Amino acid sequence: MTTDTLLREDLYEGGHAPGVAPVRGRGGAPAYFSAWDLHAYYGESYIVQGVSFDIREGEILALLGRNGAGKTSTLRAIARMDAPGLTHGEIWLDHKPLHEMKAHQAARNGVALVPEDRCIIPGLTVQQNLQLAQIAPPHGWSLERLYELFPRLGERKNQEGTTLSGGEQQMLAIARALARDVKLLLLDEPYEGLAPVIVQEIERTLESVKQLGMTTVIVEQNAIAALHLADRAVILDMGEVVFDGTAQEVLDNADLRHEYLAV
Ligand SMILES: Nc1ncnc2c1ncn2[C@@H]1O[C@H](COP(=O)(O)OP(=O)(O)OP(=O)(O)O)[C@@H](O)[C@H]1O
Ligand SMILES: [Mg+2]
């Protein structure tokens, strides 16, 4: 029996060989990223209730669902933040077991979470915000390359980061993630609070990031915009996965969108 069939048979039993990345349905190869049966709590509150999905290298996955469905919590669990606490499950990125790591180790292994509030550091210029991200290895993009992708940031490199417009702050937050060696980019509501014209600008930037083959999870209330960017979609409801398929399937299925996304 090959390792492959062994793993696949294990999976049908609801598990897989310990210490080996799980082999999921799509093509039988270990996924570049996989979240496997994640359960996570804030204190006593059971929020992430058995979430599983995988992503191929270079794919963009839209993680969608109503307010309170558990999207942010799932991203935080993947980035190995202290809360919510992961009590069960496995998270693999490029053959590395993130579930065994703390947040700083996950970051060192290529996970970058861009939170909703963007977390621009007060008192620092745009350039200093980017340089700070580059202090610790592994290093990602150079300042030159970042300013090429985000010319607006180049124009404003000496401006204090917190005085940027909302759209520019979002660009800075994404640029800061890319300043490190990122394997998995987790974006929590990158279009939040932005005017449609700015959303279009961020969308174009994310299209460029996609062309570069960055594996990405995008959480968005603006589901239609996220679905146009994404290859695949996972819908959460009350902390569980209720849909896993292509982005196009969600765009084509009005009933599904009404039921879980209210769009
Ligand atoms: N720090 C926390 N302590 C306790 N409960 C929390 C905490 N953060 C979130 N929750 C709860 O977890 C559930 C999921 O929240 P989460 O932020 O993951 O949802 P979401 O899908 O990102 O929603 P939204 O679209 O509104 O951002 C909610 O019921 C929320 O109240
Ligand atoms: Mg959220």
The gist of it:
The chain has helices at 3-12, 71-78, 103-108, 126-133, 143-149, 151-155, 166-178, 196-211, 223-229, 247-252, 254-260; strands at residues 33-42, 45-55, 60-64, 85-93, 96-97, 111-114, 184-188, 215-219, 232-237, 240-246. The chain has 263 residues and is of the alpha/beta class.
* CATH fold-level topology of the domain at 57-74 and 111-261: Rossmann fold
- Which superfamily, in CATH terms, is the homologous superfamily of the domain at 57-74 and 111-261? P-loop containing nucleotide triphosphate hydrolases
The CATH level-2 architecture of the domain at 57-74 and 111-261 is identified as 3-Layer(aba) Sandwich
End-to-end Cα distance, whole Å, is 48 Å
The CATH class of the domain at 57-74 and 111-261 is Alpha Beta
Which parts are unreliable, with pLDDT below 50 for 5 consecutive residues or more? 1-19
Order of strands in the sheet with most strands? 6-7-8-3-9-10
Task: List the ions, cofactors and other small molecules found in this model.
Answer: adenosine-5'-triphosphate, magnesium ion
Task: Determine the structural class based on helices, strands and strand pairing.
Answer: alpha/beta
Q: What is the overall number of helices?
A: 11
Question: Looking at the structure, what is the overall shape?
Answer: globular
**Rg result:** 18 Å
Order of helices and strands: HEEEHEEHEHHHHEHEHEEHH
Strand content: 15-25%
Largest sheet: 6 strands, mixed
Number of strands: 10
Mean pLDDT: 89
Estimated helix fraction: 25-40%
